[in-house]
UniProtKB/TrEMBL annotation:
Protein name per its UniProtKB record: Superoxide dismutase
EC identifiers of the protein: 1.15.1.1
Top-tier EC class: oxidoreductase
Sample GO molecular function, one term: manganese ion binding
Domain (Manganese/iron superoxide dismutase N-terminal) ranges: 26-106
Known role: Destroys radicals which are normally produced within the cells and which are toxic to biological systems.
Reactions catalysed: 2 superoxide + 2 H(+) = H2O2 + O2
Homology family: Belongs to the iron/manganese superoxide dismutase family.
A cellular-component GO term for this protein: mitochondrion
Cofactors: Mn(2+)
């Protein structure tokens, strides 16, 4: 028997229809907080335009289309169709969420990219990994080991109440395995190939120069605060 329940990963992205033709708000591609060329020479304006305006936009368009089909299937009580649509919703929702985090995780060097200032996050990194350099080496090694496409992540792991380094395949979200994403590194070829060709190790090395640590530190503070509130 087919289950009528959507997976935990998919469920937040599908709004239950209240009737045929029920309205829903559509997902949109978020604007960048910086110009396309601000991340140069680490990431070129050409890649940023292609990545943001084409790849991310495609995930959003496909997510909206998949959601419309799910709502139509719900209205018809077509369980088989709802189940069949779950992979499309999961993949495109992941593409949308992961890239939305990615854009916020980046900032040009002239505007503070790569600078990790004193913060709770900096203290946690030094306590757990010894230094930012050692952390970045671990993230890069794990991300480079991905077979195919995926993401490297610095996360807050609520299960242990500490930072963690993980990878996810394709467009799977860190939240799908119970982690809170803090910093994501896109390991899909479209993120680097025009600039680095097949030398993705250089891309992984250089991207740390444009990490927006203020954004990452804010995500860490929020994750810790939520974790502590749930314990009390």
């Amino acid at each position: 028997m087919l289950s009528t329940k959507l997976s935990a990963t998919v469920r937040p992205f599908v709004r239950k229809a209240s009737g045929i033709g029920a309205l829903r708000s559509k997902h949109t591609v978020p604007d960048l907080d910086y110009d396309y060329n601000e991340l140069e020479p680490v990431i070129s304006a050409k890649i940023m335009r292609l990545h943001h305006d084409k790849h991310h936009a495609t995930y959003v368009a496909n997510l909206n289309a998949a959601e419309e089909k799910v709502l139509a299937a719900q209205a018809k009580n077509d369980v088989a169709a709802q189940v069949a649509l779950q992979p499309a919703v999961k993949f495109n929702a992941g593409g949308h969420v992961n890239h939305t985090i990615f854009w916020k995780n980046l900032i040009g060097e002239k505007n503070g990219g790569g600078q990790l200032h004193s913060s709770a996050l900096k203290s946690a990194i030094e306590e757990q990994y010894g230094s930012l350099e050692k952390l970045s080496a671990q993230v890069n090694a794990k991300t480079a080991a991905i077979q195919g496409s995926g993401w490297g992540w610095l996360t807050f792991n609520p299960a242990i109440g500490r930072l963690d380094v993980i990878t996810t395949a394709n467009q799977d979200m860190a939240s799908s395995v119970g982690h809170v994403p803090l910093l994501g590194i896109d390991a899909w070829e479209h993120a680097y190939y025009l600039d680095y060709n097949n030398v993705k190790a250089d891309y992984f090395k250089n991207i740390w120069r444009v990490v927006n640590w203020k954004d990452v530190a804010g995500r860490y503070d929020d994750a810790v605060a939520k974790h502590n509130s749930l314990k009390n």
